[in-house]
Amino acid sequence: MDSWNRCKAVLLLLACALLTACGGGGGTEGQANADTGDGTVAGLLAAPITEAQAVRFLWKSSFGPTTESIARLRQLGYARFVDEQLGLATGTYSDYLLDKWAPNAGNVEFKFCETTYPNESAGRCYDWIYNRGRAPSIIFLRSAVHDADQLRLRMAFALSQMLVVSVNSDERHAYGMRSYQQMLRQNAFGNYRDILVKVTKHPYMGAWLNLGGSHASRPNENYPRELLQLFSVGTFLMNQDGTYVLNAQGRRIETYKQAHIEAFSKALTGWVFPPGFYSSEAMVVDESRHDKTPKILLNGQVIPAGTSAQQDLETVISNVFNHPNTGPFVVKQLIQFLVTSNPSPAYVARVVRVFNNNGQGVRGDMRAVVRAILLDSEALSPPDNAGRLLEPVLTMTGLVRAIGGTTDGAYLDQAAAAMQQRPFAAPSVFNFYPPDFALPLAGSKLVAPQFGILTMSTLTQRLEHAQNFLWAGSIPAEAGLPVGYARGTRLQWPAAWLQMAAGQAAPLVEMLNVRLTGGTLTAAQKNHIAAQVQSLPATTEAQRLERLRLATFLVYSSPQFMTHR
Predict the structure, then answer these.
(1) In the chain, N or C: fewer CB atoms in 10 Å?
(2) What number is the average pLDDT over the span 381-401?
(3) Residue 410 and residue 138: Cα distance in Å, rounded?
């Protein structure tokens, strides 16, 4: 029986276990919870960091641990490592692929464009080819595996799923998407108010949610509604710990009314696209389109008559930014993306205090916020019911980074699309999944956002793409990618791992357990995997490689890899 058929014997159990893995259960052996109720972490920050602890932390702060990042974290400690990441220069999503990925005479989509839009220029049809966004996704995934500013990238990716624009439309342009995502990357550690201003003015958002061209005679409500509902205050009033405020009948209280949406819509009229529609330049004002009547915003704040479009935009952003709901609404989602799907109210409250005041009187300092999220005791020493299902993107980038692989992003883009999470291609402004997606467990009050796109089909894709990658060892460069960019996706198995595969299986499995799951497999799981691996011969180099592939795949397929704590 070949090794892939051997895998099938344990896959069903692993897949079934995955569906309940986020429901709590056994903790990590030897990991004391030092939470004192106030987020005290002095002991955790001072103690030496084990390899397993480093791996668990890097799953929260990067796109997967590498040999180098594990060593660096253990050398510096948590706080200095985070500070080093916060200080790195911002990486760049290159325009090279966009510039060089030109159509050729045989391109079917190009011919369709020429036939459908016969009066359009060749340049317009060239744009149309990648309007649906493969190029930005490919560029991002290459950066996620290789670029140094990993924490900034994780924050930018989280923000891209909160402040959503999508290439999931034929009318969007890849250069505009690249510009929008670079803006989020550049400002990931900036101030949330500045981020909201830049998002509001960006031409891609202006096209996506119809703010560009909104006229006083017909104010468009699309962007103002999502600014309130998704980008700032949220739908229901929250306490500062992220729990909901309830009325006397025990029901949630709405944060805003339709009248507020209408007022915000009027206030945001008058913004139009700059010359060069798909450029990175912010939208500009056409005062003739701006509504100059008075408007009443949240908490009764009044915009007087006669103010300009720029003044109204600044007032609108300040109104939502300073609303007490914005801190808990934003912070809770960031914790869910980086650390755990179900943060305790105390954890949320501690980070919200930092959002409200970074210690120097500044509100919305995202540098201070991400530092508080990652260095909190619940991040460093999580309770038993903590954790999150890894997003599909992270499963693939993490596997490539763990093994020391390289990628041009194209194969990972295909894999992410098959798992329903192609970067920057969410099906709607509500992202790939909602932040309050509930686990399908009777009596459970836990949420598990990423389970919103976990089906038997996407779970199968998680396993199949990993199997293809591990057994192929090298995914060829995709046809059509430009020379100088395309290099495929390739493994580089560490020599030490291959040497371990020649001996007893148990040490190999334990090493992979630490490197992929942070040492969280149970003894029974490790014994079961080791038995499967030990049954294979290890005389030749090819046989040792087969052992290593099988061991890696079975650890990858475990609930503990898919659901990190």
Answers:
(1) N
(2) 93
(3) 5
